Amino acid sequence: MEFLGRRFVDLIKLFIAPIIFLTIVTGISGMGSLKKVGKIGIWSLLYFEIVTTFALGIGVLTAYWLRPGDVDRSGLPLSSQPAPAPGKQFSWFDFFMDNFTLQVLVIAIITGIVLNYSRHRGRAMVLLGYCSQWVFKALKYLMYAAPAGAFGGMAFTVGKFGLHTLIPLGKLMLSVYSTMFIFIVLVLGGILRYYKASIFRLLRYIRNEILVVLGTSSSEAALPSLMEKMEQAGCSKPVVGLVIPAGYSFNLDGTSIYLSMAVIFLAQLYQVPLSVSEILAVIGILMLTSKGAAGVTGSGFIVLASTLTAINKIPVEGLAFLLGVDKFMSEARAITNLIGNSVATYVVAHTVKEFELPEGQSEPFAA
């Protein structure tokens, strides 16, 4: 059973470098394209970054408050972690030189910035898009083996450490669902309240799209009808056409909450203390790596794996344990992403003065 879980995670690791490079480069180049659109793009980017960073922070704080990963005092053993050399002082230079994931991350950021100012940007983006298509297709086929990896990871963990190790997974599910509910009602609801709108009226307005997402576990399934409804609600066509598609890469509130909580959950499960600087590093890395790949099956595990390898303290094989409950949390992520993009569209439309109701129609979200 341990073999199944470990080998699946080892295969996942092979995708870290190419996917991180491709998504970061195309993501930064995409930000440059958004800025060229004008004030709609600039306000959209500003909103996306503020709200998703807030979502990451809420995920971290809630995970530390609820502590879903606590098993017992001993925790799970750090089987894959090398013992630190005694007496050796910590060095940021050595940490960077020994960390391949961080190196790829830095090279990708530099490449993305350079491409934004290159005259060959168009051709480079076509090539990168072609490479991304094949890499993500390979990842999609690998994820067909996810049930075997999850079976092996969970069977090994439960068989070796006992049934009580399943309790943290149940606590994680409850924590994720509770956090996302609070985020929708308080944070997104508070944003709408500032614009004299009601989050509950918005939820009622897009209830059919929420049901579609609930049934498919994918927020992209409701994209066409959501765009149509937001136009009918008074948001201009240019705002809807830019904010919602871009939001599926840059404004993933539910995914951000889940990823940050999953990292802290695994740290608690393996009894790994994280310093404030390491927590900030987790948020910073997730801000970059969570962009651009969320619509692809299995990309969430690549993001988690890349974050864990960059921090280099939490065993990556913990991912096989998380696979067992990921399906049950994918609906919550997708629904939160959908609602977050609806709120973003409404806010940007009001901010750039591109909100106009059809004649004779009252505002559907008015508080």
Features:
single chain, 367 residues, mainly alpha, Proton glutamate symport protein, globular
Per CATH, the class reads Mainly Alpha
How many helical stretches?
16
Structural class computed from helices and strand pairing? mainly alpha
Query: What is the N-to-C order of secondary-structure elements (H for helix, E for strand)?
Result: HHHHHHHHHHHHHHHH
Kindly summarize this structure in a few lines.
With 367 residues, the chain is mainly α. Helix content is 74%, strand content 0%.
Note the topology:
Blueprint (H helix, E strand, L loop, with lengths): L1 H13 L1 H22 L1 H28 L25 H6 L2 H17 L4 H22 L3 H16 L5 H28 L4 H7 L1 H10 L6 H10 L4 H14 L2 H17 L6 H14 L9 H13 L6 H34 L16
Helix pairs in contact: 1-7, 2-3, 2-5, 2-6, 2-15, 3-8, 3-12, 3-13, 3-14, 3-16, 7-16, 8-13, 8-16, 10-16, 11-12, 12-16, 13-14, 13-15, 13-16, 14-15
Describe the protein.
The chain is mainly α and 367 residues long. It has one domain: Proton glutamate symport protein (Orthogonal Bundle), CATH 1.10.3860.10. 74% of the residues lie in helices and 0% in strands. It has 16 helices and no strands. It has helices spanning 2-14, 16-37, 39-66, 92-97, 100-116, 121-142, 146-161, 167-194, 199-205, 207-216, 223-232, 237-250, 253-269, 276-289, 299-311, 318-351. Helix 14 runs antiparallel to helix 15 (299-311). Residues 80-90 have low confidence and may be disordered.
